[in-house]
Recover the amino acids of this structure.
């Protein structure tokens, strides 16, 4: 049954989960209720923390189809459990639904729309959701998504809109007419309200959730225990600390919720017009929209309340909310395959593929263009949390847990402390029984030892360093929405950079043009704005082939298009709404050159003649635009010169793509060489092409023609050369990263050779390094997939270039670090298409390519995310720095994503830099390293504090004594809290160093450091404890004891006699207690100084003035009360008077302890690593990180790197190891 009933939902997706069915069991609930009563509610808490236990304890397994509760578990490495209750959706509740037809549908296992539209039978529709009862559908909600039972697949599935499995044809044929009111009501019942709701939880709800945190429950237990033991002051101090912590935590959590709520709710409800089947227009609230509704886009624009596909007209949209680019984008209507010349009726609609025709939720439609009398219409495809904006909000509301070794080790360490506490617990009970102590006292003291060993202040202490780091980052303009990631940034050893706008300047400058005539390149020309070229097809293409538009009288659009249009100095005029209304067709956008550029056609002197010439002015109207598509890497337009009979098609785009769509005879023979020359110099090259269209193509036919019909058989016209300058700070920042052994990778949407050139210019690839281009080809015509290896640089100069072997590619290996394996002499470069083929067909080559892949060009947004994942799979800690434009997914997926854009798209990024410069990357890594080292220091210190106090108490328990309430208070508040919160203040070191901090607490040097300090502290404390008993003046202390033998002490003792006897029942005052108290108080300060590391990750300890001042004050105070007793202080701290020579002896013990502790810590720092690496070399230990292990393997691999001009083929039977072979092409 188990195997059979374990189903998987969201298969193959990021949020894939296993699902198990359960039914509530009364007898189990009864037993659990009894257990809750017996454990005083603790069992209830345990079940609240563990959803899996909760379900298994109260339910029995059942078939998923008929269950009442589902248990979900994520399939990623975190294996997180969730549970959800099954609900029933009643379909008879709406007046528009005819119960009879619904019953018929449902009884057939269908829950489709009503009978009004029988043609509607798309497979994505609600046709497979059967019911146990006629009018009910079973569903559950998880992370704001509803999952309905689907009888076809015998599993739960979320309700899809029109974004999956719907062809472009059916969007026009079946969905363009709109829905009837009945169908709309039916769908609304299933899809629910169209809104992205971010509920701000009430303060009470947040408080309960926060208070039920295991940490606070443990604190509550500690406080109750201390109150029963009359440690009221310390209990009160912990309560105040906890309250401050809870209030600040509630404030920050609620503030984040309110911010997100305001961002989403700002435009969540608007009034929209929708078309109904009978062509009537109905005005409804945007919250009532459902997939299939036809929405009318208003003239003056709107903020989109859903995802919709345009079926009529054109829109200018600002998509900065999604992409981070505030450049207006032109959206055109979805091509209608049924009216295209070259029908592509079977093409499925996909919001990503057809994003140039899709209006996304949350984006702003600035203005619309339309046919006369025809409205600009869009079919709603997704609503609510299914929209692109909804998915973005979900990723913020339900982030993936961050897995970091430090936090896993912290839990392990706490478990070790619990084990130590367990030993103390048993020891206390045995010792107390042997000494015939009362049962009540045994219980309190044995439990007390647990609260001492597991310090309640630990989480507060751990977060202090991160909070300080966050504050320092804010000062340098880096904002952080995920503070836990700051520590992870300290581990980054690879950073991916976007190119345009990140490494290079945002804008491009026109360097020049190189025209082609008679299939031959002319010389490059700098000035395009001249009389000779004004009427040329080349300039006409530059004037028309763009997506510029006028918004508020100002030209706006893609920066590249703007630069190109400004270079020719033409004027763009758009039709006004009034003009459009006068004509029976859409008025074209018109471009024309300025008058001074036009050659004079007649002698200028006759004014009448000039007036006569005016209508014949040179103007070009843009009839149809096919917007730029990053998948196709090109854009094209159909235009007509005023007065011409035939129309012209112009195209511009990536040179390789444009050349492939032109007549071969028009492309120059040296095209590839010229292109390579420009790209190697780092220029961005764009090619232009043109052809005259047949005269039979009328205006109306052009509006419905397919893109492929236009974009072929063109004449190649030449190249536009744009310059993309490096940002001033780029080379220096990359050099800093390389010095710190941090690998850098370029991920760009630009041409590969341009990217390689920029990588060389900025120092990512050194001049002497070789670049190997991996060109992967997918399987075709029965042939298997293959990779061709080319060397980017001409290797003809090298005599043995064709025989490069691994010996010719030296790899530096340093005895104490495998990091230097990255310093190699070759780099791989590939484009997005090759990357996809390699991922699919050459799985075993992926890790090898990740090890040396430096340039990834022409990468689509989802490929950037896949690249980050592939790098993480070989154990790199990956940082990603981009301008937020199309890096959203990668920024979110990386261990440390830094967005250089402050627009809303960057909300998905953990870090946002105020200054759009990559100098924020080393700053973030430095702060991350400082925060990480601070976390280690604090953790080590808190562990030592626990053990020192635990040992003090254990020693005192042996003589049936304990530390006094005010002694605990002084140690925990005056020493520990002050030290912890000031030792975290060390700022980051000025520069990045090659050494990296350890990633976890369980590392040899770190454990040795902690264990050695424990042994030292325990040793010196025991020395004092046992030595005091050997003193000639020692006796079991009683109120009349007089070891000091001074009148002052006699007077002091006798005058407080009554008070002493009262306190004596706890036996706090004795010589052992005083000795242990003084020695341990100094030990806390000694380990604080020993553990406060400075270089190479933090500023030295003495620069942390708060810490230095605090420690000095504490030292002076403890020294003063030890060497010069003050009666009032002694009374409060319950210290007894001891002879002066014993005070000096204690001082000597403390000084020797300090010397030994600091010398051991310095030795561990200096020699620990060497000894450890020597021990590892003796054992020949395999490196933990996969990339290091791989680098070692590749050192001895004679076949790697691949030789130039060779091909690697995928075997027909793809299997585990050795799934490819190398075949040399002869």
């Amino acid at each position: 049954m188990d195997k059979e009933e374990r189903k998987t939902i969201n298969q193959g997706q990021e949020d894939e989960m296993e699902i198990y069915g359960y039914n509530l069991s009364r007898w189990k609930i009864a037993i659990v209720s009894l257990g809750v009563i017996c454990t005083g509610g603790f069992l209830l808490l345990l079940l609240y923390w563990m959803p899996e236990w909760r379900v298994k304890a109260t339910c029995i397994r059942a078939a998923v189809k008929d269950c009442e509760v589902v248990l979900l578990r994520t399939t990623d490495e975190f294996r997180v459990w969730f549970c959800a209750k099954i609900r029933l959706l009643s379909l008879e509740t709406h007046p528009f639904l005819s119960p009879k037809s619904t019953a018929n549908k449902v009884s057939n296992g269908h829950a489709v729309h009503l009978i009004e539209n029988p043609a509607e039978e798309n497979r994505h529709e609600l046709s497979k959701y059967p019911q146990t009862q006629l009018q009910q559908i079973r569903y559950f909600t998880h992370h704001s998504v509803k999952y309905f039972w689907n009888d076809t697949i015998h599993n739960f599935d979320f309700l899809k809109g029109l974004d999956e499995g719907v062809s472009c044809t059916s969007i026009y044929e079946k969905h363009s007419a709109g829905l009837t009111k009945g169908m709309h009501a039916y769908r609304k019942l299933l899809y629910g309200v169209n809104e992205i709701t971010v509920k701000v939880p009430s303060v009470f709800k947040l408080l309960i959730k926060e208070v039920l945190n295991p940490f606070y429950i443990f604190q509550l237990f500690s406080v109750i225990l201390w109150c029963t033991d009359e440690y009221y002051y310390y209990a009160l101090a912990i309560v105040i600390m906890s309250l401050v912590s809870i209030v600040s935590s509630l404030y920050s959590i609620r503030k984040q919720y309110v911010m997100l709520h305001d961002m989403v709710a700002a435009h969540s409800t608007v009034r929209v017009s929708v078309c109904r089947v009978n062509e009537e227009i109905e005005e409804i609230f945007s919250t009532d929209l459902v997939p299939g509704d036809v929405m009318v886009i208003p003239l003056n624009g709107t903020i989109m309340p859903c995802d919709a596909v345009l079926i009529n007209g054109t829109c200018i949209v600002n998509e900065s909310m999604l992409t981070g680019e505030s450049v207006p984008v032109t959206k055109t209507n979805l091509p209608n395959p049924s009216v295209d010349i070259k029908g592509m009726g079977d093409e499925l609609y996909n919001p990503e593929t057809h994003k140039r025709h899709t209006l996304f939720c949350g984006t702003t439609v600035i203005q619309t263009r339309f046919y006369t009398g025809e409205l600009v219409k869009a079919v709603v495809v997704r609503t609510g949390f299914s929209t692109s904006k909804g998915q973005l909000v979900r990723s913020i509301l339900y982030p993936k847990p961050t897995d970091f070794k430090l936090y896993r080790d912290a839990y392990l360490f706490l478990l070790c402390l619990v084990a130590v506490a367990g030993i103390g617990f048993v020891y206390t009970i045995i010792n107390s029984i042997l000494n015939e102590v009362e049962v009540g006292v045994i219980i309190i003291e044995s439990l007390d030892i647990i609260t001492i060993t597991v310090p309640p202040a630990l989480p507060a202490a751990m977060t202090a360093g991160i909070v300080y780091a966050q504050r320092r980052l804010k000062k340098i303009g880096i904002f952080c929405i995920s503070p836990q990631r700051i520590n992870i940034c300290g581990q980054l050893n690879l950073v991916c950079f976007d190119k345009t706008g990140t490494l290079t300047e945002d804008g491009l400058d026109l360097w020049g043009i190189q025209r082609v005539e008679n299939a031959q390149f002319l010389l490059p020309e700098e000035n395009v704005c001249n009389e000779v070229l004004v009427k040329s097809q080349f300039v006409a293409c530059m004037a028309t082939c763009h997506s510029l538009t006028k918004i508020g009288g100002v030209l706006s659009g893609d920066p590249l298009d703007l630069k190109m249009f400004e270079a020719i100095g033409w004027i763009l005029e758009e039709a006004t709404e009034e003009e459009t209304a006068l004509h029976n067709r859409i008025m074209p956008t018109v471009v024309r050159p300025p008058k001074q550029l036009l050659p004079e056609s007649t002698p200028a002197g006759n004014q009448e003649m000039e007036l006569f010439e005016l209508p014949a002015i040179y103007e070009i109207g843009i009839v149809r635009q096919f917007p730029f598509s990053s998948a196709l890497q090109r854009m094209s337009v159909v235009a007509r010169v005023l007065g011409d009979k035939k129309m012209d098609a112009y195209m511009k785009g990536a040179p390789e793509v444009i050349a492939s769509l032109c007549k071969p005879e028009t492309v120059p023979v040296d095209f590839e060489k010229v292109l390579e020359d420009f790209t190697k110099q780092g220029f961005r090259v764009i090619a232009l092409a043109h052809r005259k269209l047949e005269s039979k193509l009328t205006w109306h036919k052009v509006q419905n023609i397919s893109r492929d019909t236009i974009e072929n058989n063109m004449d190649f016209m030449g190249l536009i050369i744009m310059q993309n300058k490096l940002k001033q700070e780029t080379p220096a920042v990359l050099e800093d990263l390389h010095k710190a052994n941090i690998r850098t990778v370029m991920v760009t949407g630009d041409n590969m050779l341009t990217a390689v050139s920029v990588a060389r210019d900025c120092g990512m690839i050194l001049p002497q390094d070789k670049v190997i281009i991996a060109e992967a080809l997918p399987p075709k015509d029965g042939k298997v997939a293959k990779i061709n290896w080319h060397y980017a640089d001409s290797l003809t100069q090298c005599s043995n270039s064709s025989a490069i072997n691994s010996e010719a590619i030296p790899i530096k290996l340093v005895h104490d670090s495998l990091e230097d394996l990255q310093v190699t002499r070759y780099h791989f470069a590939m484009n997005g298409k090759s990357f996809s083929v390699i991922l699919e067909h050459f799985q075993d080559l992926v890790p090898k390519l990740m090890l040396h892949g430096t340039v990834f060009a022409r990468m689509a947004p989802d490929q950037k995310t896949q690249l980050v994942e592939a790098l993480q799979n070989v154990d790199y800690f990956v940082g990603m720095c981009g301008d937020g434009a199309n890096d959203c997914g990668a920024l979110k997926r990386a261990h440390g994503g830094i967005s250089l854009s402050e627009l809303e798209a960057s909300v998905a990024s953990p870090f946002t830099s105020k200054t759009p410069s990559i100098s924020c990357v080393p700053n973030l890594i430095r702060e991350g390293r400082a925060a990480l080292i601070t976390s280690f220091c604090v953790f080590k210190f808190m562990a030592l504090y626990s053990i020192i106090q635990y040992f003090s108490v254990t020693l005192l328990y042996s003589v049936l004594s304990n530390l006094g309430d005010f002694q605990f208070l002084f140690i925990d508040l005056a020493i520990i809290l002050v030290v912890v919160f000031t030792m975290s203040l060390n700022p980051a070191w000025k520069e990045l160093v090659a050494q990296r901090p350890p990633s976890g607490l369980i590392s040899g040097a770190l454990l040795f450091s902690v264990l050695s300090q424990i042994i030292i502290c325990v040793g010196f404390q025991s020395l004092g404890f046992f030595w005091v008993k050997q003193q000639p003046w020692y006796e079991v202390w009683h109120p009349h004891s007089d070891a000091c033998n001074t009148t002052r002490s006699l007077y002091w003792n006798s005058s407080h006699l009554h008070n002493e006897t009262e306190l004596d029942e706890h036996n706090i005052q004795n010589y052992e207690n005083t000795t242990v108290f003084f020695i341990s108080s100094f030990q806390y300060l000694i380990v604080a100084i020993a553990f406060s590391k400075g270089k190479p990750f933090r500023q030295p300890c003495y620069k942390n003035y708060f810490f230095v001042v605090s420690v000095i004050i504490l030292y002076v105070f403890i020294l003063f009360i030890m060497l010069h007793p003050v009666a009032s202080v002694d009374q409060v701290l319950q210290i007894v008077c001891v002879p002066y020579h014993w005070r000096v002896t204690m001082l000597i013990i403390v000084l020797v302890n300090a010397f030994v502790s600091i010398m051991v810590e310095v030795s561990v720092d200096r020699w620990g690593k060497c000894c450890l690496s020597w021990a590892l070399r003796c054992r020949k230990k395999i490196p933990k990180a996969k990339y290091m292990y791989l680098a070692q393997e590749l050192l001895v691999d004679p076949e790697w790197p691949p030789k130039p001009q060779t091909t690697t083929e995928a075997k027909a039977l793809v299997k585990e190891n050795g799934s490819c072979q190398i075949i040399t092409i002869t």
